[in-house]
Structure formats: structure tokens, C-alpha cells
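REVIEWER CHECKLIST
Item 1: Sequence provided? yes
Item 2: Single chain? yes
Item 3: Sequence as submitted:
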Amino acid sequence: MSLTHVKAFGTEAKDKDLQEMTIMRREVQPNDVEIDILYCGVCHSDLHTARNDWGGSVYPAVPGHEIIGKITKVGPEVTKFKVGDLAGVGCMVDSCRECESCKKDLEQYCMNGFTGTYNSPDRYMANQRTYGGYSQTVVVDEDFVLKIPENLDLAATAPLLCAGITTYSPLRHWNVTEGSKVAVVGLGGLGHMAVKLAKGMGAEVTLFSRSPDKIQDAMDLGADSVVISTYENEMNAVKGKFDLIIDTVPYDHDINPYIATLGISGTLVLVGYLGKMEDMLNTVPMILGRKSVAGSVIGGIKETQEMLDFCGEKGITSEIEIIKMQDINEAYGRMLKSDVKYRFVIDMKSLA
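Item 4: Structure as written out by the authors:
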């Protein structure tokens, strides 16, 4: 297979800054499209992979899985796209396509493991890992490429490909519709999208936050109310209220107080934290109210396209701060301090 050199930004080790490097991309295969990357969102997963916080990172690592660009080449068997089309790539670039999950358009739960946009074994190039969107171009099978609504701001659309679908998928799965009572825990990159999307579906939306400083921000994003989770009187006032809680907090925290605010048959869905919960889960309110604690990760390609189309109809995008590629290390530092409203997006012209 012939390869091409591409300029990128990545890291050689977990304790090293990201810097400019050259990576190899495959030449376009029959079912591939090549995308000139215009914008790439910055996700907490990028930072965790660069610093090997979850273990398993292979270096050099080039993060980035919120990719928006323009198609510059198509393979001879491509039918869904043409040169010049706007295109997006999210967290996956392939899957086995044969297991029960893949057959149900749930590639994110591929039983043989989906191919992540970065740091996954490459199904095309032996002994190499995939490289993400902190680069000039990417080559992806057309089945894992998304159509971008033309009415949306391209930079602000990039985070929809991870933060957007991560919150849209549970809202859809748990049947949020007009009048549903939805709460969101945490107002970061995921949380602010959960508020916007739930509101777009017609739900009554409440934000749980530990910070009174977030009240105005939440209301500006469309929340109907804010509950300060450290105020006992406010938590008591919403006991038994919610149909669904989207918990976006990215670190270990006690979820028992939130379970008390679920109504009968309500569900709390964890989308932000991966790992062990140290606080014991009290099952009494769950059993006595048929309440559930669940988890969810991104969405399949079909559902991600549905989410983009929904956002196109409703005019929903992410709140972003645009940065240059060369400022990524500073951006990572700011992310660790939650100093961004609410998502960094890299203008990839800066890499050129």
C-alpha cells in the first residue's frame, strides 16, 4: 500500500508536550475519502490519551476525533460523497461490521472493538496505530464519514462529533420528548451540549451544579432551572422529579444524592466518568422506585448523522473558543482547570 507524508501535531511520550511531526497516511483506497481538515475539536479524551492517563497509549500519539473538513479525493467505489463536500469524522473510523452490534448500527459497541480515530490498531496498515485529527488530512472509509449540514458554523459543529453525540444518544435512547423532565449534572463540554440538545427535544431542563456562578450561564444555554447540589433545601425540592439525569462529571463523585431526585422508573446515565466509584451505591431508592444507573458511550454512525441533521434543523452548535494548533499545550493546561467555555476548537490553517 502506498503512503503519503502528512504534517501533524502529536506527542512522543506521556510526559512530553505535543509538537509538530510528520505522520504517514494511506493513499485513498476504493471506498475511502480523503479529507482536508479545517477544524478539530479538543476533547478531554485527547488529553488523557496524550498523557496515558487511562493506560494503553502508544506513541507517537496524534489525538483529535472531532474533525470537520472538505473532501479532496474519493476512491472509485465511493457513492456517498464527492470532491468538495463538507464532511465530518467522529470517534470511530472502522469496526468489524459483522457482529450483532454492528448489524444494529451500534458500531460504538462493536463486539470485536471499534477502530478509534486515534490510538487504535489500524485495520489497513499493519503494526501501526491510527492517527487523529491534529493533522492536515485524514483518510477514512466512506461508511464512517458524516455529512455536515451547510447552515451550521463549521468550527462550532466540530464538538458535536463527540460531545454532541455522547449526550444525544442517551437522550434518544431513553425517549426524551416534549415535556420530559431532564437534569444535567455538570456544565462543561458535555454538559452544555446536553442542556442544548435536551431543550431542542422539548424537555424541561434542569442543571445540577456545585457552583452558583454557573446559574446565568446555564439559563443562557436554555436551562429552565438550576439546582445547587450542595444546598440541601434545593436538592430536597426536586426529590422524585426527573425522568432522566445525564451525568457528565469526569471524575469520581457520589451519585446517591442525584438518584433521590429521579422519579419512578427514572434513569441516571453516566457519560463523563470512566472508572470505579468509591462511594457505595445505595440500592434502596433504586429498588423502591424502579430506578436505574446506566452508562452510555458516543453513538453509532447512523445515530450520529441523525444528531447532526437534528442540530441542523434546530440550529444547535457548541460554544467554542478557537485556538491555533501551536497553542494546544496551553489549552490542555486550561482544560485541567476547567478554564474554557465550553470547548476548544483548533483552526487547522494554523498547522499549514
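Item 5: Key structural point noted by reviewer: The chain has eleven helices and 17 strands.
Item 6: Recommendation: ____
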